[in-house]
Amino acid sequence: MTSQEGSAQTAVANAAPAKLGYEVHVTQGLVRAGGARLPSGEPIVSSPITSTLIFGRDDAILVDPPMSIGQTREVVEWIARSGKHLKYIYTTHGHGDHWAGTRQILERFPDAVAYATPETIGHMHQQNAPELRQMFERNFPGQIGDTPVLARPIPAGGLDLEGNLVLAVAVGHSDTDDTTVLYVPSLGLVAAGDVVYNGIHPFLLESGNGGLDAWLHALDKVDSLHPQIVIAGHKNQLLKDDPHAIADTRKYLQDARRLLAARPKPLDYYQQMISLYPDHLNTGPLWYSGLALLSGTNLLTNGK
User: Domain residues for 247?
Assistant: First the structure.
């Protein structure tokens, strides 16, 4: 921790906290290029991405910048309209759709400082490996800008937002390894990243070999914070940021675990989950996750 950062907890103790608010912006998914298709023949689309702005009188923190140049431009304009001074950026986990736009945001708001946990920063570097960059370019040609890893480790004592403590809480594996949530006790708010989904079919591609069990444990950790507001990293924008999304995600994962354990054909699994969750949006992750877990075929990395 630098002397400039200081201790957030000490700063909070010495300051009269401002009343905080939040807003959520959902950017729509991108059509994946190449030959991969849903069983219906429709193209596969990436999931909508949730970015959260938590703010006081003057300053704000952005949680999870989106991925593409166009998505990030949309978020930049949204932040500018808020009239707030962007002080911090926080990334909940290492998947590129939650941080690839960081450079573009810092170009517009150069006073902001990007933070993540050391584990997330390590995952960011893995995601920036040439072979994964090539995969992103195949899937979204010309849509992803330069993605240097610009985040620094978040101070262990958290961040101070106008006298309010903002904490990174590590929860372990969810839809990938080493995930976190951002917890704002004074708001009762959890920006849950991809630990919690809300009305969207989750990405289960990394959920083999006990991953679903670990994810369920991560949900228990979020539940233990007793949040009043839970913002999912991928959500149906028409749904409220309700803590019931934790229980909904838990039930989905339990149903997926039960069906996957029976080793059905990928198409049968896909159809069974749709029948259980007919109102969930974006069946792309459902299809390609089930296909990979049940047959070993990864539509995202096979170069099609």
Answer: 8-295
